[in-house]
Write a structure and sequence with these properties.
Low-confidence stretches: 137-149
Keywords: Signal
Mean pLDDT: 75
Radius of gyration: 34 Å
Organism: Variovorax soli
Protein name: DUF4148 domain-containing protein
Distance between the termini: 94 Å
Largest sheet: none
């Protein structure tokens, strides 16, 4: 019994001794340097030169909201839109626990927002914001919520 164990040990040990070690470069290639030799600006310039000007990731491969379209709202228009949204009362009703988009009071608030947003009030609000320089929700009056219908 001992001879079988010794023979098995001898064969195993002989295989280990005769095995050659292979440098890692032969299995995976030359190592990649961990420190770049190019500066950040050189890398960015190379990237910008190789990428087309209008290259964007297709929407089906993206995560998150789509890119902003050119020709969007100006800052004053966005602030005016927010002010009118708050003035219509949508800022208070949208985050309530009992929010129901089919409730009559919510529909009335949406109708009021649409009327303000597409009427002369929007133009007046943009002019007021551009005239003051700030205007972020400064005069937005939040209407109290109407009773449920």
């Amino acid at each position: 019994m001992n001879t079988k164990v010794l023979a098995l040990f001898a064969v195993t040990f002989a295989g280990v001794v005769s095995a050659q070690t292979v440098p890692p470069e032969q299995w995976v290639g030359t190592p990649v340097p961990s420190i770049s030799t190019l500066s950040r600006s050189a890398v960015m310039a190379d990237y910008m030169a190789s990428a087309p000007a209008d290259a964007r990731t297709p929407q089906e491969f993206r995560v998150g909201p789509p890119d902003a379209q050119s020709g969007g709202l100006t800052r004053a228009e966005a602030v005016a839109d927010l002010n009118l949204w708050l003035r219509s009362g949508l800022g208070q009703s949208a985050y309530r626990e009992d929010f129901d988009p089919l409730r009559g009071s919510y529909r009335a608030q949406v109708a009021m927002y649409q009327r303000l947003r597409h009427g002369p009030e929007f133009t007046a609000e943009v002019a007021r914001i551009q005239g003051t320089g700030s205007g972020f929700a400064s005069t937005a009056q939040s209407a109290p919520l109407a009773a449920d219908e």
